[in-house]
Amino acid sequence: QKKKMAVSAKLYGSGDQEAWQKGVLFASGQNLARQLMETPANEMTPTRFAEIIEKNLKSASSKTEVHIRPKSWIEEQAMGSFLSVAKGSDEPPVFLEIHYKGSPNANEPPLVFVGKGITFDSGGISIKASANMDLMRADMGGAATICSAIVSAAKLNLPINIIGAMDVALGSGATGVFTNSSWLWNKLFEASIETGDRVWRMPLFEHY
């Protein structure tokens, strides 16, 4: 007969109920990002993505705003590149703008998050290998991450202001430029001076 081992257990650390609840909120934010990224693209359409974020954000805090911009709005803004990507799908495009106003100071500069939200990247599909084509659903990982982060910030009632839209960060008179090429940036900047179409270089870490 095998001898039974006595097993004892004890809690590690000095975490309290508040710390536990904060950990639960962190985990729920991570799981929301996973849900958005892992759901097949035929289900996680732009419209469905926006609906999920709107539901989660509005239930998280009363200090939030959600603007789901339809195709007509995108056309009014002359966002040609954005619209050209959407032409490859029967699903209509959505420009999602979300705000969390947690700071008591309404004039405090906001943190601005920008994320790529292409729910399925079919670009160059004729020359792409089929082996990893299913992974193209994760091309909206940037948008999934920042939206989940803003939802988590709202649930934690953080005393900060966050906006998830480039147009609000720069205003209508300037275009944001992300590039790690100084040569390209100089050319774009020179062209902006000549045309009057102003640009502003956004920060990038070296590993980008």
Automatic annotation (TrEMBL):
Record GO biological process: proteolysis
Cytosol aminopeptidase domain boundaries: 31-166
Transmembrane segment boundaries: none
Entry coiled-coil feature ranges: none
Domain of life according to the entry: Eukaryota
GO cellular component: cytoplasm
Keywords assigned by UniProt, alphabetized: Aminopeptidase, Hydrolase, Protease
GO terms of molecular function: manganese ion binding; metalloaminopeptidase activity
InterPro entries in alphabetical order: Leucine_aapep/pepB, Peptidase_M17_C
Family the entry assigns: Belongs to the peptidase M17 family.
PANTHER family in UniProt: CYTOSOL AMINOPEPTIDASE, LEUCINE AMINOPEPTIDASE-RELATED
Protein name according to UniProt: Leucine aminopeptidase 3
Protein species of origin: Homo sapiens
